[in-house]
Amino acid sequence: MEVRYSPDPLNFKRMTTEELRKNFLIESLFQPDKIEMVYSDIDRSITGSAVPVKGSLKLLASKKEMAANYFTERREIGVINIGEKGIVILDGKVFTMNHKDCLYIGRGTKIIEFKSSNSKKPAMFYFSSYPAHTQYPSKRLKFSDAQPAKLGDMKSANKRTIYKYIHEKNVKSCQLVMGLTELEEGSLWNTMPVHTHQRRSEIYMYFNLKNESCVFHFLGEPNETRHIVVRNRQAVLSPSYSIHSGAGTQNYTFIWSMGGENQEFDDMDWVKMENLK
After folding, report:
1. What mean pLDDT, rounded, does the chain reach?
2. Alpha-carbon distance 126 to 47, whole Å?
3. First vs last C-alpha separation in the chain
4. In the predicted model, what is the mean pLDDT of residues 57-65?
5. What is the pLDDT of residues 237-272, one digit of tens each?
6. Beta strand 200-207 with 234-238: parallel, antiparallel or unpaired?
7. Backbone angles phi, psi at 128, to 5 degrees
8. pLDDT of 130-145, one tens digit each?
9. Which residues are registered as beta bridge partners of 148?
10. Total number of domains in the chain
C-alpha cells in the first residue's frame, strides 16, 4: 500500500507538473491479479482497485499503515464494478456484481474476496474506503437502483447524469458518499461552475476514455488553479481547499467518492466564474 501526505495550499502553489502528479494522481489502478491501494492522510481515505483474472483476490489489512487485524475493523468501503460480471464475497455471503453495480461494505466484515465470473472478461472493482465509527449493513445496489439526476445542457457542453449510490437517502453509511457521473456524447465539462467543500474531501476516478483521449482535471484553490492530465482509469485526490473539475477530449464517466464530517450531497461552497484564476 502506498502512503501519501497532502501538501498545504502554500506548498501547492509552488509545485511542478511532476510534483502535482506524484501527490494527487493515482496512475497504477486496475492491474491484473492485483489489489492496488493508496492511503492518503486526506480524511484517511484508501483508494483502490481489484482485477481478479486467474483466481480470487482477498482484501487484507496492511499491518503497518492500518494497524488492524482485518480491513474493515474500523472502516467502511464502497465498491463499483466498471468491468464485466463478477462477485464479491463478504464473510461467505455472495454478492453478484454486474457492470456499474455498487456494493456498500460495512464495518466489521472480516473476509472480503473479489472474483470474476469469466477470466477472459474480468471484473474491475474500484473501491473507496474511509474510517467508520459504527456498523451499518452491507448492501448491493444495481445500477438501476442508483438515484439519477440530469444536469447541464449541450450549449454548455456539460449535459450529464449523476447517479447517487451511497448517500443519506439511499444506503446508510458513517461518512462515505459515492456515485458516478456520465457525460453524454458531445459534452466535455464536469463540475463547472466549480465548488469546494471545507467539510470533506473528494476523489474522482475517470474511465470510459479511449487510449488517445484524456481529461484535464483542474485542482487547487479557486484563485490559484492548476491542472493534471488524467488518462483512462486513473484517479485524482482532492483536499477540502481544492476545486475538482475537468474537461475532456471526449465524453467520459467518472466515479466520485467523498468522506469527512458532512454527508449532505448539496453542501458545496460555490465559486463564481469571475473569481476563478
Report:
1. 94
2. 8
3. 35
4. 93
5. 999 999 999 999 999 999 999 998 866 777 777 788
6. antiparallel
7. -135, 135
8. 999 999 999 999 999 9
9. 163
10. 1
Position 128 pLDDT exceeds 80: yes
C-alpha cell at 20: 502535482
Burial of 240 (0-12, 13-18, 19+ CB in 10 A): middle
The answer to whether 101 touches 163, Cβ cutoff 8 Å, is no
- The string over 87-126, giving b where at least 16 C-beta atoms fall within 10 Å of a residue's C-beta and e elsewhere, is bbebeeeebebbebbbbbbbbbbeebbbbbeeeeebbbbb
* The three-state (H, E, C) secondary structure of 163-207, written as one string: EEEECCCCCCCCCCEEEEEEECCCCCEECCCCEECCCEEEEEEEE
> Do residues 131 and 175 touch, judged by C-beta distance below 8 A?
yes
Cell 468501503 appears where?
Answer: 77
Nine cell digits for residue 103: 456494493
Which cell is 14 given? 509552488
- CATH number reported for the structural domain that contains residue 149 in this entry: 2.60.120.10
**Domain boundaries, position 216:** 2-275
How distant, in Å, are the alpha carbons of 9, 51, 57, 119, 222 from that of 229? Answer: 20, 24, 30, 31, 18
Tell me the per-residue pLDDT of 152-161, one tens digit each, with 9 for 90 and over.
999 999 999 9
